[in-house]
Each structure stands twice: as C-alpha cells, then as structure tokens.
Design brief:
The protein is α/β, with parallel strands linked by helices and 376 residues long. The chain is 43% helix and 14% strand. It has a 7-stranded mixed sheet, sandwiched between helices. It has a 5-stranded parallel sheet with strand order 2-1-3-4-5, with helices on both faces. Helix 2 packs across helix 12 and helix 8 crosses helix 9 (228-240). It is globular and about 65 Å long. The chain starts with a helix and ends with a strand.
Length: 376
C-alpha cells in the first residue's frame, strides 16, 4: 500500500502542475509500456522530467489514434531507487500488466538488478537513462539505448580539454562513481593529461576533500559523485576557498537542478549533454518537443524531458512497425530496422541494427555562465 500511495500522490502532484498522468489505468486493448523509477526518493525530480517528456509524446500519439487504433500507456511504479524494489516492480509489470517493453529505467543500479530477468524473459529494455558500462560494455539483444555512453561523453570532453590547454585533472567520486575510475584514468593518460588528485566522499567530509583538491592545483575537477547535495557542497566549498578553475560533470551528474541551487557558484561548470539544448530550437526535434510541451500547457523544458520525448517517439516507431500481432520478439526485430535511412529523426540521429543497439553517440558540451544559466 505504501508504494501505491506514493505513486498516487506523486501523480496527483504532477497533475496539479499541469503534467500528464501516466498512472491512468490501462484498458484491455491498450499497449502497456512498463517503467520502474524513483518517484519518491533522491532522483524523483529528474524522473519526473523524463516521464513528463515521454507522456507528452504518448499523449500526442494517442490523439492521432495510437498504434493501429490502440492507445499506448506508460505504467510507472515507484522503486525509490532501490534495486530490490525495481526487480519486484519489473516482475509485476511483466506478469500483471503484460508490458510489451520496459522503458526509461533511471540509473545503473536498477538496470543491473533487472538485467538477468530481462534476458530470461527476452523483453525489450528500451532507453535506460544511464551511460554506464553495465549497459554499453557488451552487446545485449534485449537492450536498446538512445543516449551516448559515459565513455562517449568522456572522449568528447577530453578532446575539448586538449583544445583548451587543460592538463591538470582531479577526480571526485562516491561509491557509484568508483567503477568508472579505471576508465577515467585511462582516458586521462591517453589525452596526455595528468591526474593530480583522486578523492572519494566515502569516509571523508567535504571540507577535508576540498582542502586536498585545492592543494593539487587542478585545472579541472571531474565530479563523478551522483549526489546533488554533496556535489553542491563541494563546489561551494572550493569556490569559497578561492578555487578559480573548472568543474566537469557528465550529463546525469550535473542537472539544471544543481546549477539552479548553486546559482553564481556554478560559473565555470562544464557539463556534457547527450541531447540538444532543449531551450533553443536549433534542430527540428527540439522545435517539435517545445511545441508539444506548450500544447500540453507545460512550460518547463529540460534535457531529461527532451530525452524522454525522443525515447517515446523512437519506441513508438518500433511499435508501429511491429503492430500486427505485437510480441516482445517482433518489437525487437522492428526496432532493429530503425535507422537514419528509414526513420525521420528530426535532427537527432538514431541508428539501430541487428548487431548494434546503441542508437546514438551524440554528445555536446555546455557551460554555466556567471548567472548560473546553462549555455550551449
């Protein structure tokens, strides 16, 4: 009951703010897309952004008749970012709600928890919101991604650092970021840069870490912790102690929620992004997303909202191609035919094939100005 109550409360709040309600019960003929996500824990805010973008697209789709006359419903259950609960939710989505695909799971921990079940049940696992090696290290026929990997983000980033002459790099991480340390150190070495410090929040406080990082005189502090509160505290502490260099975060680490909290202290923050700038309609997909959000009377654009919109649109393309006697297997085969030659990507290329399910390697870099605003 607690999980159901949390889910209901979350979506009542969303509805009150003009957001769409994915908790609406599915009809007997509806196509159910299942999602387990953090609706009441530490990542609830970014989850809300992704879900809103996805449901804006699904609402558009359903207003046009859905898929062969069938509505598409996103069924989201709250896992509070708990891998055990995510697994339980996934079993419910498959067994009770008969989900045709699993969609938009956020973070590496929940993905790691459910992948064995995904493989056992041979169900499409579409658009997980993570760049982790857990998803990208090896080909998995059941997993389809529409975002670049963290490795893609780091490669692009280090090419920019080289152009800017930034050579002295420091790492700050937590337990979640530690698995990426080996990869990050290798990329630093390949870029002919120097790792001058590597600090973890585990067993230390932010003040001591800031002192150690400051002593190493880094050009850039690479933030790999996923805790917004810890990251905010570290940046404020270093700025207060006179650090004038850069900070870097990958797309999921430094969200606009962090930059708005930091305000002017966020100046000099470099963030890699895996979708285009959602506030500037420079590509058709962003224009389409902004228009759909306005029609839905939702004025707050976001990177994760755009990612959710794109994910829903690409999944719908696969559903449309597999619509006759839809099954998990037919959907997988249909998605493998979606590429930039057969699909109107509106400026955000998606390329799937039977041998590659990483749909995108798009990476861009944004910076935060003196007003705390993200600039392309």
């Amino acid at each position: 009951m607690r999980r159901i109550a949390a889910l209901t409360l979350f979506f009542l709040c969303c509805h009150a703010h003009g957001q769409l309600n994915p908790a609406e019960p599915a009809g007997n003929n509806d196509i159910v897309v299942g999602q387990s996500a953090d609706l009441s824990g530490p990542y609830a805010k970014i989850t809300r952004q992704f879900i809103t973008g996805a449901n804006v697209y699904f609402a558009q789709l359903n207003s046009r008749g859905g898929i062969a006359g069938r509505r598409v419903r996103l069924m989201t259950l709250d896992d509070q970012n708990d891998p055990t609960l995510a697994l339980k939710n996934t079993q419910e989505l498959l067994d009770e709600h008969k989900a045709i695909a699993l969609f938009g799971y956020i973070g590496a921990q929940t993905t790691a928890a459910v992948l064995p079940l995904i493989n056992e049940r041979k169900v499409p696992y579409f658009a997980p919101v993570t760049g982790s090696w857990i998803v990208y290290a090896a080909f998995n026929r059941h997993v389809f991604t529409i975002r670049a990997s963290y490795a893609n983000e780091y490669d692009y980033l280090f090419s920019r650092f080289t152009q800017m002459g930034l050579k002295r790099l420091a790492i700050f991480n937590d337990a979640t970021g530690l698995p990426h340390n080996v990869m990050m150190k290798a990329k630093i070495s390949n870029a002919n840069a120097q790792l001058v410090a590597s600090e973890s929040i585990m067993g230390q406080n932010v003040d001591k870490i800031a002192d150690k990082l400051l002593e190493s005189r880094p050009d850039v502090v690479l933030i790999m912790s996923i805790s917004q509160n810890v990251n905010s505290a570290l940046i404020r502490n270093l700025r207060a102690k006179g650090y004038l260099g850069y900070f870097y975060c990958a797309s999921l680490v430094c969200s606009p929620l962090l930059t708005s909290d930091l305000e002017e202290a966020a100046s000099g923050l470099i963030i890699s992004q895996v979708v285009p700038h959602p506030w500037k309609a420079r590509t058709p997909i962003v224009h389409e997303y902004q228009k759909a959000m306005r029609v839905a009377r939702i004025g707050q654009f976001s990177y994760l909202g755009l990612e959710g919109y794109i994910a829903a649109k690409v999944l719908a393309e696969g559903l449309s191609r597999a619509s006759h006697r839809l099954t998990h297997e037919k959907l997988i085969v249909a998605l493998e035919t979606v590429n930039d030659k057969t699909y109107d990507h509106a400026g955000y290329q998606i390329n799937f094939s039977p041998s590659s399910h990483q749909g995108s390697t798009y990476v861009d870099v944004t910076t935060v100005d003196k007003s705390g605003v993200i600039q392309p």
